[in-house]
Design goal:
Rossmann fold; 13 helices; 24 strands; ATP-binding; Cobyrinate a,c-diamide synthase; P-loop_NTPase; EC 6.3.5.11; magnesium
Length: 444
């Protein structure tokens, strides 16, 4: 029997570029609708780990990523349609500018049929906002637009000038809301993006305050429903991890985890056991370990003092058990990490080497990866990289990622016995047999 077709009020929050306030506005809308007693589901476009933490706190619901390249159209459409069946309103936050990237936020909004709210930072701008909005609309006329939300409005007169400009656009564009300048609503950032939500002590107060301001605007009313159709059928995955327990590091230092990756491991039969290096927890009884990425460089002294965790990881590796480490997880396996301020910390020493955080970005973008592991031949793992550190690792080069948009060398994958480590963040669903092999699963 086929699944039902689902519809739900929805908005897609985008902007001309990064820095216009998409995350703040999306979080404020989520909090506004939540305060109205609505069940709000929020999605984040692209391979982002930090924005979803803020959006989750705002909405009170888990936030998943929608990435057309890594996950594919069917998985994206299924996620959204099933969420629509359980929600009163859906919000999707875009990534970068509306038309940036391949695929772009516009591609996703058009696929899903969700109208776009263009958040525009209006500081230092008057009627020219109309030309900017007209350009966004004219660039792809088939895209649905809900209107403009002006961020950084200086005064009622400034708002009037913005409205005049939008009225002169062809076609005219509604000004959905104008938020006055208030630095307390700006979410703090660091080198990888936003500061993680648990670190912002007054985040709830900020979200409540900006939601209160938006409650007097037209956005306080739910948008029109969008018909998301019948969700595509879920893929079936081989249960190659049946009977395996995978220990997963999860805390503020190791928080870059796609929910879909956890779901995939469980769909393949694995039992997940979480532990916190920051709390100096020893590994739980397990067959394999996953050290995801995060911010180990911000907690050097605490991780240096986590001798119970470090010792249990060394014992796990010495026993020849599988250990898979991504980005920050890889750095934790090294002997030393040097932070941005020059301070250093002694890490596990499971892999010889050292990492140092640099003042400039060292790696960014999509990459594909093929690993010569039992049962994984012919698969291509889709990955993303984004890091400011530079590492020297004393381990064998197992493979290199292949960049999606240029021919420069991709990230190195290191292999030592059953340890696999890289700067790459992998989307597990793209190559399930490879993932099973990384965690010591069955090969057939």
């Amino acid at each position: 029997m086929s699944e039902a077709s689902y519809s739900c009020p929805a908005l897609f929050i985008s902007a001309p570029a990064s820095g216009h306030g998409k995350t703040t506005i999306t979080a404020a809308l989520a909090r506004l609708y939540r305060r109205q007693g609505k069940r709000v589901t929020v999605f984040k476009t692209g391979p982002d780990f930090l924005d979803p933490m803020v959006l989750e706190q705002a909405s009170g619901q888990p936030v998943a990523n929608l990435d057309l390249w890594m996950a594919g159209q069917d998985h994206v459409r299924r996620q959204v349609a099933l969420a629509a069946a359980q929600s009163d309103v859906l919000l999707v936050e875009g990534v970068m500018g509306l038309y940036d990237g391949e695929p772009s936020s516009a591609d996703l909004a058009q696929l899903l049929g969700i109208p776009v709210v263009a958040v525009i930072n209006a500081r230092g701008m008057g009627q020219t906002i109309g030309a900017l909005a007209q350009g966004l609309l004219a660039y792809r006329p088939e895209l649905k637009f809900a209107g403009v939300l002006a961020n950084g409005v200086a005064s009622p007169r400034h708002a009037q000038m913005l409205r005049q400009g939008l009225q002169h656009a062809r076609p005219s564009v509604p000004l959905l809301s104008g938020l006055q300048r208030d630095l307390q609503f700006a979410l703090p950032e660091r080198h990888l993006g936003l500061v993680a939500a648990p670190e912002i002590a007054d985040l709830d107060a900020r979200l409540d305050a900006v939601a209160e301001r938006m409650s007097a605007t037209s956005l306080a009313n739910l948008p029109a429903p969008v018909d998301f159709g019948t969700p595509p059928a879920e893929r079936s995955f081989p249960r190659l991890l049946e009977g395996k327990t995978i220990a997963v590091a999860r805390d503020l230092a190791f928080s870059f985890i796609y929910t879909a990756n956890l779901d995939l491991l469980q769909q393949m039969g694995a039992t997940l056991a979480f532990f916190s290096p920051l709390a100096d927890q020893a590994l739980p009884p397990c067959d394999a370990v996953w050290l995801p990425g995060g911010y180990p460089e911000l907690y050097l002294q605490t991780l240096q003092d986590a001798q119970r965790t470090q010792s249990s990881l060394r014992e796990h590796a010495a026993a020849g058990k599988p250990l898979y480490a991504e980005c920050g997880g890889m750095l934790f396996l090294l002997e030393t990490i040097i932070g941005m301020d020059g301070a250093s910390g002694r890490m596990c020493g499971v892999l010889p080497g050292q990492a140092a955080v640099q003042p400039r970005l060292q790696g960014l973008g999509y990459q594909t990866l093929s690993l010569k592991l039992p049962g994984a031949v012919g698969e291509h793992l889709r990955c993303h990289t984004f890091h400011y550190s530079r590492a020297v690792v004393g381990a064998e080069f197992m493979a290199r990622g292949e960049r999606l948009f240029d021919s420069s060398e991709g990230e190195v994958v290191y292999r030592r016995q059953q340890i696999t480590a890289s700067y790459l963040h992998a989307w597990f669903r793209s190559a399930p047999r490879t993932v099973a092999a990384l965690f010591g699963g069955a090969t057939a």
